[in-house]
Every structure is written in structure tokens, then in C-alpha cells.
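Issue: ligand-bound run for adenosine-5'-diphosphate - logging full I/O for the record.

Environment: standard queue, default settings, no custom constraints.

Inputs:
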Amino acid sequence: MALAFDEYGRPFIIIKEQEQKSRLRGLDAQKANINAGKAVARILRTSLGPKGMDKMLQSPDGDVTITNDGATILEQMDVDNQIAKLMVELSRSQDYEIGDGTTGVVVMAGALLEQAEKLLERGIHPVRVAEGYEMASRIAVEHLEHIAQKFDFNVTNIEPLVQTCMTTLSSKIVNRCKQTLAEIAVKAVLAVADLERKDVNLDLIKVEGKVGGKLEDTELVYGIIVDKDMSHPQMPKRIEDAKIAILTCPFEPPKPKTKHKVDIDTVEKFQTLRQQELKYFDDMVQKCKDVGATLVICQWGFDDEANHLLMHRNLPAVRWVGGVELELIAIATGGRIVPRFQELTPEKLGRAGLVREKSFGTTKDRMLYIEQCANSRAVTIFIRGGNKMMIEETKRSLHDALCVARNLIRNNSIVYGGGSAEISCSIAVDAAAYRYPGVEQYAIRSFSEALDSIPMALAENSGLQPIETLSAVKLQQIKENTPFCGIDCNDVGTNNMQEQNVFETLIGKQQQILLATQVVKMILKIDDVISPSEY
Ligand code: ADP
Ligand code: MG
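Outputs:
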């Protein structure tokens, strides 16, 4: 420490060790990093599995989120540590690629870090640990292919797909109606899927929510929902085989501009003007009828008199529809947006098999359903729920389910869940360890132990004795060679995941192991942490 003076004679202190203090090197750096990673994993560990806990997160402006989704928890958590941020990224990349398994991947990475710490303490070089992990992960991924099963489904028999989505949903807050939601998710995915190319464009599935009603009322609409109603309460609420005119021009007589002057000094003149205005609008309605429109969707409004006339002439209309929705309707119904009234022709009309208005609750809450559209495979999942938080969480859970269904269409291999795949891999990796003569052997064996932490966490979260349960299942797997025995989280009475119908996708599980290994290797190779010095 030294005392110095600046040009104004004010004293200040120079701390010589300052640079060293904000810098960690060697084993200290690795240990600090491992601890940071473990801390994040510990938070998520209790959320894993069907009996996992949920987290409540409050944002700086007071919004509350309740969720069970690993990626969302980490996204909303305000982490400061750089290594912790890597774990957040890890969860995000699993979410991005696969959609499900975001909690499991972090728990797995945490377990690998924990094992690595023990190895480092025994004096094994971090690079050797990293290499051992790499070998072990390859063994595990290969073994997964070995125990994976093809599973057949087709458009008429969707039950297997529904079962897999139900596994995903069973760990979420919405598990009360997982059957309904899983069926909706599968039907939605199949509606937009291209089974020949084995591809699904999830953008075509629109997820909408409205507060009110029950979660059970959530429905799949083959078409589009618009938050608008018919302009007149006496207009028909249901139009079959609708031919829709989509207008972005005003649907009313032109107003006199300020520059023009209309002198009305007699009753007759006023009557004429009125008649003319009426006729003008009548002509417009007639024109719509002539081209064959049975419904008018208008971006602009029209006044009450016009509204009355429309009702009278039996031409249902919807007014004040937003531009985005108008575009969606145009795409789905194969219609054209008509910007000038004169341009309205029969070819420009959109077609929909059914347009209906549906009302909700006791309020005047109505929505317009446009279904059986001509052109598009677009579907909407319409979520109902008691409050906004519930709807948001349902959206996230459905996202996971949609992703799982999509992954299965891309690749229909599955492995069994409930930790059974991990236990089986653990046995395989452990058995393979003897084939490696070097120090890596220890790392490979540690990897096998880390794999056990997923079933352990599942057991712990379900209130079972973790070690006893795990060793019993493991023994059973080794004795009977049954890679589908896992943790009976829901206390069904059997730990045969085949019977319980608990599957996960093969690619999802492989991705979890690969991603977790990559991140842990990266963390282990950092031996110098240089942060900007603080003032
Ligand atoms: P993630 O975000 O990783 O998907 P989840 O909370 O969804 O985390 O938990 C997934 C884990 O729970 C998987 O290992 C899965 O096999 C297991 N699991 C899900 N449903 C069941 C069940 N009914 N019985 C046993 N395990 C289950
Ligand atoms: Mg899940």
C-alpha cells in the first residue's frame, strides 16, 4: 500500500495487490467456477420430474412468473456470475434445439461438475478429466441408440404420440389436464406437419390465450381466432361457406371534404342529400352482394345507420379489425385485401367453411372463429385459464409438448424416461471404464456416477429414499437386463416405464448428455479468471 497525492494535493491510496485480488488462477479458478455452476444446478434440481417443485420469480417491475420450465427459470433469474451465465446458455440451447429437457440438462451438468471437483482434489489434471468425460459421453450416446426403440404412429392412431406428450406435461403445473393438452398438441402438430418430408413448421401454430374459463376449456381451432364481434348484435352468429370481402377502405359514403361547400337551405335539398347518401351506401352493399360476399371484414368503422342498413340487407360485417389480423385472415382464407372499393371482384373473396361468433362468460366478451379455411393449414390453440400467470405457464408447457411431438415426427426413436435411460447408460459407461488403461478411467467412472444423479433427483423430489431406490432399480436392470426400469415417481406400483408409458425422445436425451458434457469441459479448461478491476 502506498500513499500518493494528486495534482490538487488530495491524498489517495494505491493498493499494490489490487490486480491479483480480482484474479483467480489454477485450481482456485477451477474450484470457484465449479461452485458457481453447481449453485445454479442446485436451484433447478428440485424442479425436476413429475413431482418437481415450481419456482416463483419476481421481475424488477413486480411481475410474477410461476413456472416449472428450466429454461424459463434461468432466463428470468438475474445471474451475475459468468460461469452461471454459461449454465443459462446451456439450458437455452437445449430449449432451442429440442424444446424439452431443459431442467435435466442443467442437473446433469451440475452432477458432472461435482464429480470433477472430486477428481481435481485427487490430483487429476483437468484436461484428463475433460478427455475422460468426452469418451464417456460418446459411450453413453452410443448406448442410448442401442436401447432406443422405434415407435410407430400414424395419423389415425395418435395415441402413442399423445402418451409421449403427456410425459412432458406431467411435470408441469398444468398436469391436471395433461390428457386434453397433449391431445391438442398432437393434433395441432399433425395438422401442420409435412409427414413426407418429416418436417413441422411450428410457426403455423398460433397460441392464443384469454383469461377466464377453465383450463379444460382450452381448445384447438382449425383456423384463426379474432378478438372481435359482429358489428350488430342481430346479425347471424354463424355463417357457413362464408365468402369474405376483406376491405381496407372505408365502408361508408364519402364525407364532404372541408374544401367543399354544400348549401342546404330547403327541406327538399336535405331530403335529396339524405337519399343520395343512403343510395350510395346501398350501392356499396349491393356491390358486395353482387360479387357474392356473405361477410365483410373491414379495417375501418361505419356509423350506426350504415350498421342498421347492413343488418337490414342481411350482410354480416365485422369492423375495426387490426391490420395484422386482416393479413392473417387473408392468408388463411386465400382472399385478397381490397384497398379500393371499386376493385372488389369475386376472385378476391376469401373462403372459409365456417365463421362463428362465440361468447365467453357473463361479460360481453365475444370472439370470432374463422374455421375450415381454404388455403392454409394454420391452426390456433386457444388457452383458457383462471389468471394470466396460468395462461403464460400453459403456453410454455404447450411449447414443450409441441416440440416433443415435432421431434418424434422428425425422428421416431424413443428411450424410456423416469431416469431409466440414465441408469442404463450409467451401467454401460461403468462397464466400459475398464477398457481404458489411463487416468481417464477415473473420469469415465465419475461420469457414470454423475448419470445416476438424474434418477436420484427424481426419487428425492418424489419423497423416496434416493440411494436405496436407485440401487434397487440398478440391481434390477443389471439382473434382468431391463433398460426400461426407472423411478416410480407417481407411486403407480411398477417401475417399468414401458407399462407406465413414460417415454422421451432419443435425440432429446442424446442432446442433453452431449450439451452437458460440452459445457463442463469448457468450464474445466478455464484456469485463469480475469475480471475488469473494480473501482
Ligand atoms: P425437463 O425440463 O428436463 O424436461 P421435467 O421437470 O420435465 O424436466 O422432468 C423430466 C424428467 O421427469 C424426465 O427425466 C422424465 O423421464 C421424468 N418423468 C416425467 N414423467 C414421469 C413419470 N410419470 N414417472 C417417472 N418419471 C417421469
Ligand atoms: Mg419436461
